[in-house]
Fold this sequence. Notes:
- The complex is a heterotrimer of chains A (about 160), B (about 100) and C (about 90).
- With about 160 residues, chain A is α+β, with helices and mostly antiparallel strands.
- Chain A has helices at about 1-20, 25-45, 60-85, 105-115, 140-155; strands spanning about 90-95, 120-125, 130-135.
- Chain A folds into 2 domains: about 1-45; about 70-155, Alpha-Beta Plaits (2-Layer Sandwich).
- The two termini of chain A are about 25 Å apart.
- With about 100 residues, chain B is an all-alpha fold.
- Chain B is built from 3 helices and no strands.
- The termini of chain B are far apart.
- The N and C termini of chain C lie far apart (about 55 Å).
- The interface of B and C includes residues 4, 14, 38, 64 and 84 of B.
Amino acid sequence: MGLKKGVNLFFYLLIFWLLLTLNLNYLNIIVGIFVSFIVMLLSYPIIFSKEISPKPYYFIKILFYCLKLILHIYKSSIFYIINIISKDSRLTTIEVELNITNPLLISIIANSITLTPGTLTIDYVGNKLTVLALLNAKDSKEKLIQDIKNTYEKNLL
Amino acid sequence: MIVNILLIIAWIYIIIGMFGIFKFKALHARLLSSTTIDTVASLTIFIALMVYIKDLSFIIRLLLIVVFMLITNPISNHVIIRSAYLNGISVKEEEE
Amino acid sequence: MFLLITLYLLTCSILACIFRLIIGPTIWDRLLALNLISIKTIILLSIYGVYTNQLFLIDIALSYGIIGFLTITLLSKFIVMGGRQK
């Protein structure tokens, strides 16, 4: 079971080596196999230490999730420009409680909250995130919490 | 034609990011306003460059830079604001 | 033509970041300005590499990004630990 994940990691490293060099000589491929085998041996006990175990069909789902995320970034940046220029904007902190317990998915959600303009995660304990946001005078906190749950969490489950 | 429109959108983001550094008086608002708007500007410029040039070896390198920036950019923002948060600068003092 | 105007605008933005880095009241303002300069240098290098059709400048931009990320992470970890004062 542990050997299978190591082989997966080895092939990802080899693909990145071939993309970075773009050179299909014999010598280049042999050096790439050697280097990625050494990196796999060194970084094996760090990555697969705890119960972080993404299943292989997650990678297709994460690819579609990235496309939806880019659309959401552009949509929220338009509202955020108006918030910067207007004078009565205020800083608030909100707390969001998620239903997911996998630590890899929680870190993906925290990174994508930081990527969208206007919100930024400070820290998390368990599955409760603390989010810093810049709001207008009219917007309410509950609408923002509902928005975060709808856009990020439902697409990953 | 598409390249020019995308570059003009990127100029607006860069100018607002410059404006956001000097407007606010609170530290957290400065952090939040400038870094996140820069990410959108860089993503727009890289999409425009990928449309502008038709060489395949350029496009693969630019895609690698985009993937790298999308992963490491929120981590560095998060690390800066977490070190400011752990050293005792709380949010509510700066609201007033 | 449009790429050249983007280069000039990015240079003006880097000058504004350097001004923030000099007058910044706390140390996190200086870290923020360093991060912004690091992002803009990557964009500047890759635009110049596409404009003059040189492939190796994009590799330099990629490796510069790795160095900037390591700088920010190590510096802010050093500040969290307390620096030399404790």
